[in-house]
């Protein structure tokens, strides 16, 4: 079976009703990123950050995987599919995809807010939607924070993703503005013989290596176009 790597971003979940932030002028659900998605924001106002992610978690739990998530999950019948996602939602898993690397964390999990929290490998499942600063603590006694990589933090899963993409036969980049580094750099790690596709309504405006075929469509329409381009058994 050929190895197909799917590299997804916030646009992947747009049709599930979860907003991207690039499309709302750098705001995420009306918040400035600096106020809710940085270590400085947590240090300054942990209540606001916790409230923001509690609301995102509720939104994600109420959302359903869309047709594009489903089409990707179905690809496992014919390909060795590996998903590398920038998304903190779990919609790929809920659609049935079995191998998912979360570069920026998973909002259904919590981790310590203590020293070295960026690198911890100890995660706590969150029951329901709420993390409470006064009720939920790690084993060492620090309040639990969402398992999300904030701007300015290390991306421990990067090397795992790098290893995964380096021997891809097919790469499908979908629903990402490729503006968040270091993860956007991953697309340059593919081997020269890899067949690469970029699905995004704004694909035409994106500068990409010549190896990439651009499909300027939404996730679902773009996946249907992609499937029509090749015989899944190739
Ligand atoms: N669902 C989530 O988990 C979620 C939501 C918002 C932001 N984020 C975080 O914010 C960061 C943002 O980077 P990013 O590049 O993923 O997102 P981004 O907001 O920078 O870019 C979103 C991209 O999706 C495209 N898009 C919009 N509607 C689409 C659709 N229906 N189908 C396909 N594509 C569509 C846009 O043209 C754009 O290129 C990520 O690192 C992610 O962790 C995550």
From TrEMBL:
User: Which residues participate in NAD(+) binding?
Assistant: 9-28, 86-89, 175-177, 219
Q: Where does this protein reside within or beyond the cell?
A: Cytoplasm
Q: Which reaction does it catalyse?
A: N(6)-succinyl-L-lysyl-[protein] + NAD(+) + H2O = 2''-O-succinyl-ADP-D-ribose + nicotinamide + L-lysyl-[protein]; N(6)-acetyl-L-lysyl-[protein] + NAD(+) + H2O = 2''-O-acetyl-ADP-D-ribose + nicotinamide + L-lysyl-[protein]
| Stored InterPro entries | DHS-like_NAD/FAD-binding_dom (IPR029035), NAD-dep_sirtuin_deacylases (IPR050134), Sirtuin (IPR003000), Sirtuin_cat_small_dom_sf (IPR026591), Sirtuin_class_III (IPR027546), Ssirtuin_cat_dom (IPR026590)
Task: Name the UniProt key words of this record, in alphabetical order.
Answer: Cytoplasm, NAD, Transferase
Q: Principal place where this protein is found?
A: cytoplasm
Detail which positions bind substrate.
53, 56
The coiled-coil segments of this chain are none
Cite the active-site annotation.
104
**E.C. code:** 2.3.1.286
Q: State its role.
A: NAD-dependent lysine deacetylase and desuccinylase that specifically removes acetyl and succinyl groups on target proteins. Modulates the activities of several proteins which are inactive in their acylated form.
The record's comment about this protein's domains reads: 2 residues (Tyr-53 and Arg-56) present in a large hydrophobic pocket are probably involved in substrate specificity. They are important for desuccinylation activity, but dispensable for deacetylation activity.
Q: What is this protein called?
A: NAD-dependent protein deacylase
Which species does the entry assign this protein to? Acinetobacter pecorum
Q: Which gene encodes it?
A: cobB
